[in-house]
């Protein structure tokens, strides 16, 4: 399962998985983009499930998991790629946009990672790839949404900064 699967790194990773013969669960907000990319990847002879979800909301993160579970789907690999950011000085950026980005870059990642992990641990299998921005290493970055917030789940996975 790949979040943010219709653009940039998420799209490129989905393409690589498809070329390697992996069936895909593709997650993104735009249904039309999902369908177009799914049709492209089906040419590799794989099965593709598309799920249009807005991971800015906790409800959609939970419903994504619930719908997979309801349909007996337990992905062996989770790629948390969906993410956004804002650029600018902290005092100049919109607080509502920042909160939305925290929900996308942190809250939905924690929800999906924890639920996925609980499903896969009893099976002793599975892999999780959480993508984060290289900007997180910079203390002077103006790209707060990506660098600071995705850096938090880097700590979650590794256990330290």
TrEMBL record:
One Pfam family hit: adh_short
Extract the InterPro entries matched here. NAD(P)-bd_dom_sf, SDR_fam
Q: What is this protein called?
A: SDR family NAD(P)-dependent oxidoreductase
| Species for this entry | Chryseobacterium endophyticum
The lineage is: Bacteria, Pseudomonadati, Bacteroidota, Flavobacteriia, Flavobacteriales
């Amino acid at each position: 399962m790949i979040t943010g699967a219709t653009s940039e790194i998420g799209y490129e990773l989905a393409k690589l998985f498809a070329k390697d013969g992996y069936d895909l669960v593709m997650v993104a907000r735009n249904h039309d983009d999902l369908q177009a990319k799914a049709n492209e990847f089906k040419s590799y002879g794989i099965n593709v499930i598309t799920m249009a979800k807005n991971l800015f909301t906790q409800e959609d993160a939970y419903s994504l998991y619930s719908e997979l579970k309801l349909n007996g789907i337990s992905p062996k690999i989770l790629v948390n790629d969906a993410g956004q950011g804002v650029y600018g000085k902290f005092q100049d950026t919109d607080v509502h946009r920042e909160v939305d980005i925290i929900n996308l870059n942190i809250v939905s990642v924690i929800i999906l990672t924890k639920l996925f992990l609980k499903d896969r641990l009893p099976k002793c299998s599975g892999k999780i790839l959480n993508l984060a921005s290289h900007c997180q290493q910079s203390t002077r970055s103006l790209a707060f949404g990506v660098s600071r917030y995705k850096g938090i789940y880097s700590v979650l996975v590794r256990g330290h900064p």
